[in-house]
Amino acid sequence: MTVVRLIPAGDGFDLMAGDALLLRHRVASPALFVGTGTADVDAYRGNYVLSDRLDARIPLTHSTIDSTPAGAVIWLAASAGTPPLLRIAVDDAGLALAALDPALNRFWLRCVAEPGERLWGGGEQLSYFDMAGRRFPLWTSEPGVGRDKSTQMTFQCDRDGRSGGDYWNTNYPQPTYVSSRRYALHLDTTAYSCFDFRDPTFHELEAWEVPARIELFAADRFAAIVGQLSTRFGRQPRLPAWSYEGAILGLKQGVESFARMEAMIAAGAVVSGLWCEDWVGLRVTSFGKRLFWDWKANETRYPHLREWIAALADRGIRFLGYVNPYLAIDGSLYAEARAAGYLALRQDADEPYVVDFGEFDCGVVDFTNPAAADWFADRVIGREMLDYGLSGWMADFGEYLPTDVRLHDGTDGMLAHNAWPTIWAEVNARAIASRDRTGDALFFMRAGFTGVGAHCPLLWAGDQCVDFSRHDGIGTVIRAALSSGMMGNAYHHSDLGGYTSLYGNVRTPELLMRWSELCAFTPVMRSHEGNRPDDNLQLDGDPTVLSHFAAMTRVHAALAPYVATLCDEAAKTGLPVQRPLMLDWQDDPDCWGIETQYGYGRDMIVAPVIEPDRDRWTAYLPAGATWIHLWPGTQHDGGRTVEVAAPIGQPPVFWRAGSPHAALFTAIGHMA
Amino acid sequence: MTVVRLIPAGDGFDLMAGDALLLRHRVASPALFVGTGTADVDAYRGNYVLSDRLDARIPLTHSTIDSTPAGAVIWLAASAGTPPLLRIAVDDAGLALAALDPALNRFWLRCVAEPGERLWGGGEQLSYFDMAGRRFPLWTSEPGVGRDKSTQMTFQCDRDGRSGGDYWNTNYPQPTYVSSRRYALHLDTTAYSCFDFRDPTFHELEAWEVPARIELFAADRFAAIVGQLSTRFGRQPRLPAWSYEGAILGLKQGVESFARMEAMIAAGAVVSGLWCEDWVGLRVTSFGKRLFWDWKANETRYPHLREWIAALADRGIRFLGYVNPYLAIDGSLYAEARAAGYLALRQDADEPYVVDFGEFDCGVVDFTNPAAADWFADRVIGREMLDYGLSGWMADFGEYLPTDVRLHDGTDGMLAHNAWPTIWAEVNARAIASRDRTGDALFFMRAGFTGVGAHCPLLWAGDQCVDFSRHDGIGTVIRAALSSGMMGNAYHHSDLGGYTSLYGNVRTPELLMRWSELCAFTPVMRSHEGNRPDDNLQLDGDPTVLSHFAAMTRVHAALAPYVATLCDEAAKTGLPVQRPLMLDWQDDPDCWGIETQYGYGRDMIVAPVIEPDRDRWTAYLPAGATWIHLWPGTQHDGGRTVEVAAPIGQPPVFWRAGSPHAALFTAIGHMA
């Protein structure tokens, strides 16, 4: 399909993306700029402050258009009579760019903005689903703790560790947006980029290199655009059925974890997996108990682990672990990788680059070296994890690649940094493929970038605070699912109960229960003990909380047949399982701005309670259907906001009257 | 004297400022850039966030030099064959610039930086005297409360009122710096500008218009450069002798103020003035008691004020009040100004522009209208203040001119904003001149900009927090004196005791006493009750504090003959009374970085105790003299750091052996 049309006009040109005027380039108001600058990077434990020492920003006011057999070519220059600085070849699906001066390392594009336009995507955004009116730097990093300069938590984290973050910080950025004007735009670059949606008349997209391509997508239906993006960036590998047929319990108390699991099963929980991230052993830091980053079973902490895993497998319960792309310098794998030359190096010495992860140091495996990537996939993940019996793991991190690292293939760290999460995902996927476990073994990642979903079967929303806070609490995982879903990622989930507990901020029973309710209606329901398990209430630490959790696991397990159909649909269309309402209900524009609810497929609307002290909740139900409140079974016409009772145990969920899954939903409605 | 030399070189040119290479302009590394942008101004009660929507930044790589009878002219263009964008006429004292495209509204200059270079000035800087390594936006504004993002005070003020500020925020910015390379540079513009001293190889100076001139000054001695700047920007009018012959008591309790003054005199204080800012009456807001901004005596709060003033005058005590350039909309002067058309207008209506000052609104007198300026000088300050009997006042504010205001003379608010403090100073000076009181009546200002000192006889360091904090406490007033002194301003002082008390932060007896000690050694010793007098300890609220204050007023009064000689010197040379050590002791480079001490003239070194809980203190004594510790009279060789006892009542002060004032200093040393 032809998405792009170039229309020479006056002293410039227009460019259409589908039916939307995307660029209006004129001498007096150019849409394209190139320049030069020098990046200044201030990095501290995954938190980055990037600033630009700008030398030049040249409006490319002068354009000439050549017709060639392959299509139109636009030559752009600063002014008539000066050499062109940018060549753009226009094809059906976008623009291929070539900088004609090798010194150019800055690029800006001004796209036409329209009043009321909504803009979705940017990777996985935690604070705002609609990006209109704000600026979004796109650089993989820690998302920050608090993420809101008006909160005490953010202030304390900024003060003590520069780690408070802001609304745009994310583990998974992606230079792609979908416009409500029914087109999508993607910058094909791994450089730092920034989408600035503040100006009422234009969107300014910045990148710290001239992107290879500006890719465009258009369709009348948003769902079709998301499908195109999923095709372009890669369908997520299908979720294994076991992963949504029960809860995955996150416990990390050594072999005590097994007994705790049994107690939770005895309390009525449906369990499909046991995730023990401490399978590698622990080290204690001021942040909390951290893992020992040497990726092999620790049979001191887990004696007879192989046998435990086999026994669980006999009962249909999978065992999951933890890995990340770094190697602690006091571990055996570091020594092995160093001896083989598999570690990324410093610029100033033929020595491994060592990164401070908070009271311990690590080497970085250099995945640009194919032998190193193979080693990690086969020797580490393959032999130490899959062959040992693991069926899954958290594939953590990916955001910390130093920009001043020296890599095997010569890639500049500034360009490798954003690419790293996707490379890391590919190493994990390759390991699974090497053992023929694709579609059966599961790994989940918080870090991401363009294309991560082609390799990683499951995103996870990162490390929320254990609270209801607006920018770092339970509600952010909904926005994360919505935005990453717009990029064509189908599967998303979160740490049940949140992760980060600092400065005395700890989990309440209410938070745990509301988060259980939310996770019951996401494809994977996985709990986490958090960074400071001993300071925080755990699911099995309170009988009411445990009983509620067990009930929610039963709801989750009961939904499995429905989720299986959503997985089928995702495989076919690329549509996410947790879905912005307008993908199914585009003709109801009141849906477009909703960011605290999601369609769980087309037949269910989930509006989790994400504020404390609430026993009622309001939800918007899309026009074009009649909706049945899951628990009492009452009917509501669509196209309106309803207020419903939302006691603990009955999260606001609605299903579509006439759904082929009506019998299942009705049965589930009788479970609470 | 010829300061500037242009040296054509290769594909560009060098430009010398005295003996320093200032510009090294080449095709590959241009020193000059022009561009276009649109300012975005977010203002809230005198706090501003300025951001730039940049369109173009054009390196002016191509230069040609013409010789003309008047001197060299440089034509600068983006590249060969394109029209020149900037014309620079080089003269002995600087560069005259002309933008050749009227659209150009951004300008950048990169000056050569050298390792170890120190940079002083930028107007009145509160946090850093040496600006090397940091970036300084230059825009008159509230200085912020806390001014340090790591403090709870700053966080709370940012959260509640966007008012926390940062190290560079100042009431008095000025686009002028003095380099340790023995030159000074001034940008002749009132536009927003920014001095960026972070890069090790260049200083980048930015302005939001092409400045009319880049003025250069050079001399072998820093003192001579400061003298040149004082000549250029205007000598401060001479301080009236009464202002340094005793303390000015700041009291604002209505007529109770008189009785409190008598009690302080009875306790031994030497008093030369009584400053009652509440002479206009009060209004109460959540920030504290605010004044009623209708500039006339309030004879309800001060019955028989004329008679009180006359009675004080008979005893040689002056009465001072308060004024600022705004008129409360509920006051009579507002109505008068509005009826006469003297108020600045809104862009969108022929209505006065009303500014929110925190729970009350005011109009802005439009001083670009000569009739309005005359009215304010004659009708308000002249008739209501001077004719009434006032001998001085705080001329507050000047930083709040809205950038979107409509002014009588058509000046863009973005250009008028920085100019306003100097215009405001001129209105005050004109009022005083109209009553032939120049050199007798005194006003003092916190706001400033280029040229403010030509009109305003006394700077005041603004509204410190009532504490010892690094960026908003007692120590900042020293840096303020040093930096504003480098601009050629001779007279500076501060609110004794600090001003801002928020969130339970209140004055301690120790703070009041240390501040008394500091003010004794500044030309004007003026107390202030602060924004919340009732919550805070006052000088007369504790017998120990009062007795200490009284002793310090006697020291201050005893110093008057010495201060008179410093005023003579200031009038002659432009050298400040409180003085960076290197102005007198340039040959001792260990002096150059000192920012917590000052020379009180050439014969005295003052090193105030600006930290709590100290009974000893260290001070650096310049090489080239022998120094006598004021109180015990012990001798110290210069060129070293000494640690001395610094109990309350004996601030670390040293005088130069051999000083013609030795007898006076010896006598003062026996007073404690």
From TrEMBL, chains A, B:
UniProt EC number: 3.2.1.20
Annotated GO MF terms: alpha-1,4-glucosidase activity
SUPFAM superfamilies recorded: (Trans)glycosidases, Galactose mutarotase-like, Glycosyl hydrolase domain
Domain of life: Bacteria
InterPro entries found in the cross-reference section: Gal_mutarotase_sf_dom, GH, Glyco_hydro_31_C, Glyco_hydro_31_TIM, Glyco_hydro_b, Sulfoquinovosidase_GH31, YihQ_TIM-like
Domain Glycoside hydrolase family 31 TIM barrel: residue ranges: 290-566
Domain Glycosyl hydrolase family 31 C-terminal: 574-659
Pfam families on file: Glyco_hydro_31_2nd, Glyco_hydro_31_3rd
EC class (word): hydrolase
Keyword Iron: no
Keywords: Glycosidase, Hydrolase
Similarity comment: family membership: Belongs to the glycosyl hydrolase 31 family.
Protein name: Alpha-glucosidase
